[in-house]
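Supplementary Note 2. Why include the ligand at all?

Several targets in our set were suspected to adopt different conformations when bound, so apo predictions alone were not considered sufficient. For every target with a known small-molecule partner we therefore ran a joint prediction. The input for PBG is given below.
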Amino acid sequence: MSFPIDRPRRLRANETLRRLVRETHLTVDDLVQPLFVVPGNNIKREISSLTGQYHLSVDRLAEEAARISDLEIPAVILFGIPGHKDEHGSAAYDDDAEVQRATRAIKKVAPGLLVITDVCLCEYTSHGHCGVVSKQEVVNDATLELLAKTAVSHARAGADIVAPSDMMDGRIAAIRSALDKEGFTQTAILSYAVKYASAYYGPFREAVGSAPQFGDRRGYQMDPGNVLEALREAELDLAEGADMIMVKPGIAYLDVLALVKRTFNRVTAAYQVSGEYAMIEAAAARGWVDRRRIILETLLSFKRAGADFILTYYASEVAGWMRERN
Ligand code: PBG
Ligand code: ZN
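The joint prediction is reproduced in token form.
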């Protein structure tokens, strides 16, 4: 059948009708809020490269987590900025470091809020790389042991989900077996399975001081031109025991997200990264785009492409908007 019988505009006539036939929805259940924890007390300092986001000491982070939990956001993801960095990123697997203390503090004030921890070394190494460095090279297998130690330390602190973001080969198997050996069989793994070497991470690296001191991350993060390789990465991580997989960044890789979701039909997350946030904030500050509409439209696009949930710096703000509507 075709025009004049078929008139798609009939179902667009008013908001109630549009609401009835809408295929994709964004809800508070889809949102994960990233938080940055720093040493010290009573610190809440705006991050210059991520306006509206804060460096929080454990005490202030716990307050923020309680507020996020009240908004019914299901989860936060924690990133640590350590007091001291060294060659081997030892603060990553120190039971008394910031992420571990923050995890314990959250579990006290908001036991129902899921704690995801980012498992990587780059925030903790003096050279800024995601693994152990020898002769200007990031050494894969020696790194696995440290990543596994980090994941176990996070689990011991009470993390519900560990999220390795380093892109070393074999890290999911290494982490799964270390967790199981220590009795953390219920700790889930959200793998940053498909993580591209991207310019969109710039503001984050400034926020955590993790820009590599030499070279770049192209020897371990993926080449932006590749999509068959994305399927391979996801397949390997699932085979090694990942419970959930992630595609990152978000907006520039919606094709990859859609394909990964359709191919494996497994829980798949999207990460709207710091550069995506910064670009929206910059354009909105100039009045060039409608801030609220562009945020909601972008987050909906991740859902439409197949994301089961979204890591986004907008999580708590968007949850607040959703609450206004109800
Ligand atoms: C650590 C890590 C990074 C991000 C998440 N985990 C940075 C990187 O790989 O350089 C990026 C997050 C963002 O840009 O918002 N490996
Ligand atoms: Zn890293």
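The chain has one domain: 24-325. The pocket of PBG (ligand 1) is lined by residues 118, 120, 122, 130, 165, 201, 204-205, 273-274 (CB under 6 Å). Comparable summaries for the other entries are listed in the accompanying table.
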